[in-house]
Each structure stands twice: as structure tokens, then as C-alpha cells.
């Protein structure tokens, strides 16, 4: 006979400081796990507070309310008869820790602090927490009096220990600890720990899931064991979308996998596993030799068994079978991640919908298509009977339960919550105006088509009245300074118009509330600074601000078929243009010509600058080889210097960048991810001179090589 156990992990859409909502979602996940027969349930990192509390983790109230919530869980019926792994911050000896709280039947068994902190990229855990540095060591933690009354305990162990039940042993590995070279799961496995839990707050980034998945599988592929991975899922209150994908892995193989993207609040993943499979997997001689000499962890006794005789006595119950890992394509990731993020932001901000300036170009088209995807997800969730989604949809649309409104058609739902506007001038083309109108019709948005020439003319007239000077476009004989200023007038007026329409359109339609303004600047344009500061890229939120132009084009090509939107093909065929200058027989404004570089080149620059940590010279030396088949050495130098010049003179724009969905590893977001000066010496004289000297050397070597042949 084997030893069958059922275990549960989950993805929860927690919200920073929403203690009431977080408690309800946590209890619901415990209830579902228990209903499915699980005896062990783990949840996401810091699930009681929400992961994204940031500097609120420095406040005493956050710790007080965490204990209050834990007290309610300890006394809940849902928690009875289960071993629960919960996440919250704990202060011990005046030091703040990010902890797991292991509880069983109204008792706290162990407080396990995080030992290795995530402190790069979007993470700043060392700002709020201290890592537990005493490996395999515990101390006594004095419980708050309100918890003592519930548990009957005065102190409990805090530190690096494991839980021993009657039939197995459980250890904890938290988020970043998995990503470190000497991860805790190695020592835990060698000490006989058979189940390892990992509670995480891991955010979505395009093409990142493969890395996480391989690390999780690898954790038990060599050492054997059961690995339970829990993650937050949703918008926690900032730029990140936590992408769920709760996992249960046995001996390096996935037996259960949750969704990566969902607008649901609670998703529980369970599996039935035979503990004997772990023991037989670990029978290798070399493993035994290492395990026999490994250092031991303190074992905290849990007076229970995870295995259930009813499972073993029922021949019809089988262990969960291995299943192939599921990955979304990058195009699917773009269609789902930002859409879920938008829905969370919309419903939690208590606004009435979105307003989007539609230019007829591919960027605003991508933003609109993501909103269309969001509407599809809402309708699909409502069709499944998700009561939370139905309640949120009614609130956003101003409906009540009495009306019985349930979204059943994405276009009809879009007509209620999505507002688009084409803001044309005499520099706009009929093509972009027509594309914007057809796209709005395809999605179902409430669309406004207007000309703003009178507003532009009024501002120009004011300037002329005050200064006596009349600026002209370059096409009409004006200087570059005049030309740029006249473009910026149009761009900035669009931002002003966007906000007045966002505030008043619901009133015009006889509906309550106001609208969130959506931005549409992509990550490459932000990196280069190819947008006007305080133009309509200045918005409330931006779903594509962390996505490259190349990926957006691939997403639109995917959505054309997946969403049955033929109009999207015309956006793929169009030349990207700002349409801020007069169109003449000899000149039509084109983005890549204006920038002096292609969008694909910008993506390359961005990855080398951020991911590979290249300055101007090291970027040049890399690209000389990477681009040797298409550009001369001197041409590579010109492009690198041009990029760094425009990047540096425009870096100040990142300080006012609209909060954008984080999706790309080279995002220039100045808020937390990419910390740089915003006043540069744009001449880069030392760096550029070294590039120039290297160009001369390389060209001379190439010339001598040609002569030798």
C-alpha cells in the first residue's frame, strides 16, 4: 500500500492593504482546498497584507492588522483539520521579517522568515525587511496577547526549521530563495524533507515563465520530492501583474498547473500524490552518501498525518498523472496579461470605464485591442457564473443586481465602458481617421471623431499676440525649433482634450462616474524619448508601455485572427507616423526616419543597455560583431552615439512617465525598475571619443586584411 496524500496550492488576487478582502480570498481558498480533500494548503507570499504594500511595511499598523487577520483564520472553521502555510510580515526583536506562518488546528507551529531577499529589478525587499541569516537556527517568538488568547501559546519557534507530521516532513523555500545558487531546497531534500513549499510574489514579464518553470522542476529533478508553488495573481496596486501559475511538481515532473492569467480572484490547484514515489526516487547511492552527512534542521512536530486512510482504502483513487507544461505564446501573453491588469485597475478604482485617444496608428490600436480582449475575458467569466466578475461588471456599468444585467457580448459591454476619440488636425490623413473609426466599430466603443484645428489656431494666435512672432512649420520655411514647437502644441492639446472628455463623457451619456485615460507609448519610444512630454502619452495608465514595437506588431497579427478583427491588417500595413507636420508631395512624416533608427534597432539598444548592462563603448563593441553583416564599423558607431545622445537628452521624460504595465526586461521606467540620472552630459565626450578611436583601429585592420587577400 502506498501513502496517498492530497495537497493544495493556489493563486490569489490579493490587494495591498485590503485586509478584509484578502482574508475573504484566503479563507475561500482554504475552503476549496479542504472540499477537495487536501490536508496541506499553501498560499502566496505576504497574502494577508498583499505583496505590494511597499513603504506601508514600515508602519506598525500593517503588522497589527496582519495579526488580527491571522487571529480570524486561526479561529475559522475552514482552518480546522488542515496544515496551513500563510504569509505575513512579522516583527521580532524590533526587526522586520517577511514570514511564513505554519498553523494547525488553532496553533502556530512555526514562523519561518525569508532568508534571501529579492532586491533588484522591480523588487526592493531590503528596504522593508531584513533577511534571516541564522541558517538551521530558531529562537522563541513572543506572540501578541490577542493571539495568545486564541492559541494558548506564549511563545512559538521563529527561524529556519521544518515541520514533521506523523507521515512526512515539510520545509519552506520562499520566492527569491529558489533563484539563488545555493537554494534551501538542496539542504532540505538531503535532510529528508519530502514536501517543499514555495510561496511567491512573482510578476509577469514576457517570456519569463520558462525560466521560473525550469527552476521549479529542477528543484526536485535531482533531489526528488514534492514542490508546491503558490503565487499572487493580479494587479496588487501598481505597475506589476502577478501571473499566478500555481504548480505542483513531483520528482521533477508537473502534475498540476494553474492558469497564468485570470480575472478570477481565487484559483486552487490540488493533486493526489503517493509519498512512496518520493522515497523510491531518492534511493540512489550517491544521494544517500550526501544525505547521511548533511546538517539537520530542527523538526517541529505537527500532531497529524497528511495521508488519509480513506484514500488508500479506495482503489478507485489514483495519484494525479503527469501532464505537459503549458506555455502561452508571447502574443497570447500580451492579449491576456495587460487585459487582466486593466480589469483589476478598472474595478478597484471604482471608475466607469476607459477613454483612449485613437490616432489610427498601431500603438493606440494595440491598446484598444487589449481593451477588447479584456471585454472578452469579462464576458467569458460571467458566462461561467463568476459572481465577483458579475458584481464588478454591474458596478462599472452603473447597473444593480435588481436590473439583472450580465455582460453576454463583448461589443455590447465595450459600448458601455470603452470610449475612443480621434483628434484630427489639418495634418491628419483620411486613412488614419478611417482606420480609427473602423477599429472603434469593430470593438464596439463609444467613438468621437473631432477636429481640433480651432483650438490649435487659438493657442498659436495667443502666442503671436503676446510675442509678435508667428512660428512656421519646416515645410513652410520655419526653423527646426519652430517646427518642433508647432508639433508639440498639437500633441499637448490632445492630452488636455482627453482629460476633459474623460471627465464629462459619462455625464453626456447620462451615466455616473468618470473615465480612466489610457496611454499608448510603447517601450521603445519611451527608451528613445520619441514622444512629447505631457502629450496624450500622459495618461492614468498605459497597458503597452512595457512592450516593444516588434512585439506589438506580432500581437496585432495574432489578434486579427484570434479575435476575428480584419481591420487590424490595415494597421500592420501602415507606416508609423505622428502626423504632426503638414503632408506635402515630397514629405510624409515617418517615425523611423524621424528617430534615425528602426524599432528593431531600438529593441537591441534597450536590451544591451539594461539587461546586458552596456554603456556606449561596450554596446558598440558588441554591435560591431552582431551587425557586421549589414553595417560598416563607422555606421554602427554613428547609430550607437545617436541612440545614447537622444536617450540622455530625453531621459527627463521618464520621471513623468505614465504608470505602465511591466512586461519587458529593458523597460526604462524611472519609478522603480530603471534607476538612472535624468540630467546627463549628453556629449558623452570620453565614451564617444574612445568609440571613434576604436573605429579607426578596426577600419585600419579591415583595410590591411583586404590587402593581404
From TrEMBL:
Family: In the C-terminal section; belongs to the NAD synthetase family.
Limits of the CN hydrolase domain: 5-275
Reactions mediated catalytically: deamido-NAD(+) + L-glutamine + ATP + H2O = L-glutamate + AMP + diphosphate + NAD(+) + H(+)
EC number(s) per entry: 6.3.5.1
Taxonomic superkingdom: Eukaryota
InterPro entries according to UniProt: C-N_Hydrolase, C-N_Hydrolase_sf, Gln-dep_NAD_synthase, NAD/GMP_synthase, NAD_synthase, Rossmann-like_a/b/a_fold
Pathway: Cofactor biosynthesis; NAD(+) biosynthesis; NAD(+) from deamido-NAD(+) (L-Gln route): step 1/1
Protein name in the entry: Glutamine-dependent NAD(+) synthetase
Source organism of this protein record: Linnemannia gamsii
Cited CDD domains: GAT_Gln-NAD-synth, NAD_synthase
Keywords, comma-separated and alphabetical: ATP-binding, Ligase, NAD, Nucleotide-binding
EC top class, as a word: ligase
Amino acid at each position: 500500500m502506498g501513502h496517498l496524500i492530497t495537497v493544495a496550492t493556489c493563486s490569489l488576487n490579493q490587494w495591498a492593504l485590503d485586509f478584509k478582502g484578502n482574508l475573504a480570498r484566503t479563507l475561500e481558498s482554504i475552503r476549496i482546498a479542504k472540499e477537495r480533500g487536501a490536508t496541506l494548503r499553501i498560499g502566496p507570499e505576504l497574502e494577508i497584507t498583499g505583496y505590494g504594500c511597499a513603504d506601508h511595511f514600515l508602519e506598525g499598523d500593517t503588522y497589527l492588522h496582519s495579526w488580527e487577520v491571522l487571529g480570524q483564520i486561526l479561529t475559522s472553521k475552514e482552518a480546522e483539520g488542515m496544515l496551513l502555510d500563510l504569509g505575513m510580515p512579522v516583527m521580532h526583536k524590533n526587526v522586520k521579517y517577511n514570514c511564513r506562518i505554519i498553523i494547525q488546528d488553532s496553533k502556530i507551529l512555526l514562523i519561518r522568515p525569508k532568508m534571501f531577499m529579492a532586491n533588484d529589478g522591480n523588487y526592493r525587499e531590503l528596504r522593508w525587511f531584513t533577511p534571516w541569516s541564522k541558517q538551521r537556527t530558531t529562537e522563541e517568538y513572543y506572540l501578541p496577547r490577542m493571539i495568545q488568547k486564541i492559541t494558548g501559546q506564549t511563545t512559538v519557534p521563529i527561524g529556519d526549521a521544518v515541520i514533521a507530521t506523523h507521515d512526512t516532513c515539510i520545509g519552506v523555500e520562499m520566492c527569491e530563495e529558489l533563484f539563488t545558487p545555493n537554494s534551501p531546497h538542496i539542504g532540505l531534500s538531503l535532510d529528508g524533507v519530502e514536501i517543499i513549499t514555495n510561496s511567491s510574489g512573482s510578476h509577469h514579464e514576457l517570456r519569463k515563465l520558462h525560466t521560473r518553470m525550469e527552476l521549479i522542476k529542477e528543484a526536485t529533478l535531482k533531489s526528488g520530492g514534492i514542490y508546491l508553488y503558490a503565487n499572487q495573481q493580479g494587479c496588487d496596486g501598481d505597475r506589476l501583474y502577478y501571473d499566478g501559475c500555481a504548480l505542483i511538481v513531483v520528482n521533477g515532473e508537473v502534475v498540476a498547473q494553474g492558469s497564468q492569467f485570470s480575472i478570477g480572484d481565487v484559483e486552487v490547484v490540488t493533486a493526489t500524490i503517493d509519498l512512496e514515489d518520493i522515497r523510491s526516487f531518492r534511493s540512489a547511492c550517491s544521494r544517500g552518501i550526501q544525505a547521511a552527512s548533511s546538517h539537520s534542521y530542527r523538526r517541529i512536530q505537527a500532531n497529524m498525518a497528511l495521508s488519509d486512510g480513506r484514500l488508500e482504502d479506495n482503489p478507485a483513487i489514483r495519484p494525479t498523472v503527469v501532464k505537459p507544461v503549458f506555455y502561452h505564446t508571447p502574443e497570447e501573453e500580451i492579449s491576456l496579461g495587460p487585459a487582466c491588469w486593466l480589469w483589476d485597475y478598472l474595478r478597484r478604482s471604482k471608475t466607469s470605464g476607459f477613454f483612449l485617444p485613437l490616432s489610427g496608428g498601431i500603438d493606440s490600436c494595440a491598446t484598444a485591442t487589449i481593451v477588447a480582449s479584456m471585454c472578452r475575458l469579462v464576458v467569458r467569466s460571467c458566462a461561467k457564473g463568476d459572481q465577483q466578475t458579475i458584481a464588478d461588471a454591474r458596478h462599472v456599468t452603473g447597473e444593480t443586481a435588481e436590473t439583472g444585467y450580465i455582460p453576454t457580448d463583448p461589443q455590447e459591454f465595450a459600448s458601455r465602458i470603452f470610449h475612443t476619440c480621434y483628434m484630427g488636425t489639418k495634418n491628419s490623413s483620411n486613412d488614419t481617421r478611417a482606420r480609427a473609426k473602423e477599429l472603434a466599430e469593430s470593438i464596439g466603443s463609444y467613438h468621437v471623431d473631432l477636429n481640433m484645428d480651432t483650438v490649435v489656431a487659438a493657442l498659436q494666435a495667443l502666442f503671436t499676440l503676446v510675442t509678435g512672432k508667428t512660428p512656421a512649420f519646416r515645410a513652410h520655411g520655419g526653423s527646426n525649433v519652430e517646427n518642433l514647437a508647432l508639433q508639440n502644441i498639437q500633441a499637448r492639446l490632445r492630452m488636455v482634450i482627453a482629460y476633459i472628455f474623460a471627465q464629462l463623457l459619462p455625464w453626456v451619456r447620462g451615466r455616473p462616474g468618470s473615465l480612466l485615460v489610457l496611454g499608448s507609448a510603447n517601450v521603445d519610444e519611451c527608451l528613445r524619448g520619441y514622444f512629447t512630454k505631457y502629450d496624450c502619452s500622459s495618461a492614468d495608465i498605459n497597458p503597452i508601455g512595457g512592450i516593444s514595437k516588434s512585439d506589438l506588431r506580432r500581437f496585432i497579427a495574432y489578434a486579427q485572427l484570434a479575435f476575428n478583427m480584419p481591420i487590424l491588417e490595415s494597421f500592420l500595413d501602415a507606416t508609423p507616423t505622428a502626423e504632426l507636420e503638414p503632408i506635402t508631395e515630397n514629405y510624409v512624416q515617418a517615425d523611423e526616419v524621424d528617430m534615425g533608427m528602426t524599432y528593431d534597432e531600438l529593441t537591441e539598444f534597450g536590451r544591451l543597455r539594461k539587461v546586458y548592462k552596456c554603456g556606449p563603448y561596450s554596446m558598440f563593441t558588441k554591435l560591431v560583431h552582431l551587425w557586421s553583416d549589414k553595417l560598416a564599423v563607422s555606421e554602427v558607431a554613428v547609430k550607437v552615439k545617436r541612440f545614447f545622445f537622444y536617450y540622455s537628452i530625453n531621459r527627463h521624460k521618464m520621471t513623468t512617465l505614465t504608470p505602465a504595465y511591466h512586461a519587458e526586461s529593458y523597460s526604462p521606467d524611472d519609478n522603480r525598475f530603471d534607476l538612472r540620472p535624468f540630467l546627463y552630459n549628453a556629449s558623452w565626450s570620453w565614451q564617444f571619443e574612445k568609440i571613434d578611436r576604436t573605429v579607426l583601429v578596426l577600419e585600419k585592420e579591415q583595410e590591411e586584411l583586404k590587402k593581404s587577400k
